[in-house]
């Protein structure tokens, strides 16, 4: 049998990817009025359509789910129309694209919340972190704990957003269960001090994430539903005293739901891969469908792990920002361009759609 190859096609549920390289979700804070992705987003994603799969940036499922300025939404008709233009552009280039569905929970600011209300969270515990609002980084606001009665509404918001994503032409969705946002806040005891059915035990802390996964899978099909988790990441001020049993349990349940993929940020998001002792192989063995690995990958590490059977697909984040033709560059061994940190969040075309392709540089 020939060994698997990073640059060969891969069947992901009902869609075929042209290669195993995935563009990780990347928030860029460039949505237009009404939190609608505009012309620049169409061009940005079109430029990156040679990725086997694009996971479009975290997109709020409701106004309450927003935590940063100028991030796109997927809860009203204008947003669906805006995203439709993006998916059409990517599909016209032969690419595949799913949307990351986001509720930030406590990582928000009153200036972004409906009626200037407090952000919502599992418990009224403020995160030690900042958000990007009013063109600057500021401390997140003090959150309030969600009531039991409100939790079904959160599940419904995810379901509606998933249906909207399909209506906008996406090939599927990725539930954002990572990086210290709402579902990760529930899963990790540093942010969840509840004493009801959604706090305390491993099963209780997993409950909301699993209800969302089941609801979205029922809404659009498990074969179009993926999920991202970051078991050992301290991103956005979360901590967990027992990540291994917590995420082993979550992954067993996600596997039972038949989700099409599990996307795992290994280590600290955007930081060291070995920040904590955690057995990612345990997640890989528990989950029978596609496993996407992320964090600090380069071609050599991806190929090693692919050959060893430790992951099926590899998500690249920062390299895709500054290398729209990342797949071609990895394949040919060409040098990679560096990102400009000053243009990551907010702004216009600069640092967004003006990173050149290699062939443009050589022409
Ligand atoms: C500018 C920027 C925006 C990001 N936005 C998101 C996001 O919207 N959703 C998410 O799950 N992760 C987000 N991340 C994390 C990346 O998806 C990825 O996990 C991280 O960059 C590590 O992968 P890399 O080493 O290939 O860059 C973001 C990272 C960066 C640098």
TrEMBL record:
GO terms for molecular function: FMN binding; oxidoreductase activity, acting on the CH-CH group of donors, NAD or NADP as acceptor. GO terms for cellular component: cytosol. Its cofactor is FMN. It holds the Pfam family Oxidored_FMN. The keyword Magnesium does not apply. Residues 5-335 form the NADH:flavin oxidoreductase/NADH oxidase N-terminal domain. Its EC number is 1.-.-.-. InterPro entries: Aldolase_TIM, OxRdtase_FMN_N, Oye-like. Keywords: Oxidoreductase. It is an enzyme of class 1 (oxidoreductase). The keyword Nucleus does not apply. Belongs to the NADH:flavin oxidoreductase/NADH oxidase family. NCBIfam families: PRK10605.1. This is N-ethylmaleimide reductase. The lineage of its organism: Bacteria, Pseudomonadati, Pseudomonadota, Alphaproteobacteria, Caulobacterales.
């Amino acid at each position: 049998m020939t060994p698997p190859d990073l640059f060969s096609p891969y069947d992901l549920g009902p869609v075929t990817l042209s290669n195993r390289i995935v563009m990780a979700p990347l928030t860029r804070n460039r949505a237009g009025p009404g939190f609608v992705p505009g012309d620049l987003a169409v061009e940005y994603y079109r430029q990156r359509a040679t990725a086997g799969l694009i996971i479009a940036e975290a997109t709020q499922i409701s106004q309450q789910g927003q935590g940063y300025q100028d991030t796109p939404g997927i809860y009203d008709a204008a947003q669906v129309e805006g995203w439709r233009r993006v998916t059409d552009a990517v599909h016209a280039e032969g690419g595949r694209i799913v949307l990351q569905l986001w509720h930030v929970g406590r990582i928000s600011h009153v200036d972004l919340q409906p009626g200037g209300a407090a952000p919502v969270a599992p418990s009224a515990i403020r995160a030690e972190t900042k958000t990007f609002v009013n063109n600057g980084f500021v401390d997140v606001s003090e959150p309030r704990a969600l009531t039991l009665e409100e939790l079904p509404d959160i599940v419904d918001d995810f379901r509606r957003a998933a249906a909207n994503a399909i209506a906008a032409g996406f090939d599927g969705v990725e539930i954002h269960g990572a990086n210290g946002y709402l579902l990760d806040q529930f899963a990790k005891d540093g942010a969840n001090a509840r004493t009801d059915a959604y706090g305390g035990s491993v099963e209780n802390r997993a409950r909301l994430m699993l209800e969302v996964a089941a609801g979205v899978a029922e809404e659009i099909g498990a074969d179009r539903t993926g999920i991202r988790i970051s078991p050992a990441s301290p991103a956005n001020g979360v901590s967990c005293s027992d990540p291994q049993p917590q995420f082993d349990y979550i992954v067993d349940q996600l596997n039972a739901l038949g989700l099409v993929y599990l996307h795992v940020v290994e280590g600290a998001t955007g930081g060291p891969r070995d920040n904590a002792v955690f057995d990612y192989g345990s997640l890989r063995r528990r989950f029978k469908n596609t496993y996407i690995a992320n964090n600090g990958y380069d071609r050599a590490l991806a190929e090693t792990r692919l050959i060893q059977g430790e992951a099926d697909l590899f998500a690249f984040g920062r390299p895709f920002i500054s290398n729209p033709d990342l797949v071609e560059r990895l394949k040919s061994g060409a040098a990679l361009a560096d990102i400009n940190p000053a243009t990551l969040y907010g702004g216009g075309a600069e640092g967004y759609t003006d990173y050149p392709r290699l062939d443009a540089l050589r022409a």
